[in-house]
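A reminder from the course coordinator: this example appears on the midterm review sheet, so study it carefully.

Given structure:
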C-alpha cells in the first residue's frame, strides 16, 4: 500500500483496533484499503499470530452518493 492511498481516505473513516479473526488481538489499522462500488475492502495483518484476513464493508444502496451527471 502506498501512502497516497491513505491520503485520499478520510482518517476518521478508517477502522481501528479490529480484533484478529484468529487470535483476537486488536490490530491498530489495516494494511490495505480498497474502495469499490458500494463496498470497501480492508486487509488486516496480525503481528501477534501472523494471520492475515480481509474484511469487506458493504454499504446500503440508498446511502451511496452518486456522482453528479455532466451537463
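Designed residues:
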Amino acid at each position: 500500500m502506498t501512502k497516497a492511498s491513505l491520503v485520499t481516505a478520510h482518517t476518521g473513516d478508517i477502522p481501528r483496533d479490529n480484533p484478529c479473526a484468529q487470535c483476537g488481538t486488536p490490530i491498530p489499522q489495516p494494511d490495505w484499503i480498497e474502495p469499490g462500488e458500494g463496498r470497501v475492502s480492508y486487509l488486516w495483518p496480525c503481528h501477534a499470530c501472523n494471520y492475515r484476513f480481509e474484511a469487506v464493508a458493504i454499504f446500503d444502496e440508498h446511502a451511496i452518493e452518486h456522482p453528479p451527471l455532466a451537463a
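Residues 18-61 form one domain. The beta strands are 18-19, 26-27, 32-36, 39-45, 52-58.
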